User: Which sequence fits this backbone?
């Protein structure tokens, strides 16, 4: 799975019939702070994501294992909208958590 940010939509007026009805979004890979990292992918939206949202997407054969994409010619699928990332001293994308005193 790859962490990414939705940066746009893609409209294809003519496409393979099995792709009819699928929403295509443009996703840029990002780090846990939301900073661009890596490439751009066109992904089928299986969860109702929108522009500006941080998502998890997969590529390759895994992209064809959701209910929306099974047996369809897709190479990337958005399968989750990410809530704030927590852990490693962070709360939310890019927000540092206040340090906790030892023993608390």
Assistant:
């Amino acid at each position: 799975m790859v962490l990414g940010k939705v940066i746009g939509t893609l409209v294809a007026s003519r496409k393979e019939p099995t792709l009819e009805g699928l929403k295509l979004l443009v996703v840029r890979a990002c780090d846990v702070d939301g900073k661009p990292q890596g490439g751009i992918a066109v992904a089928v939206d299986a969860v109702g994501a929108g522009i500006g949202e941080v998502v998890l997407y997969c590529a390759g054969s895994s992209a064809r294992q959701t209910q929306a994409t099974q047996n369809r010619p897709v190479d990337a699928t958005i399968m989750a909208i990410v809530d704030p990332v927590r852990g490693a001293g962070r709360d939310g994308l890019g927000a540092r958590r206040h340090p906790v005193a030892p023993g608390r």
The first strand starts at residue 2 and ends at 10. Confidence is low (pLDDT under 50) at residues 94-104.
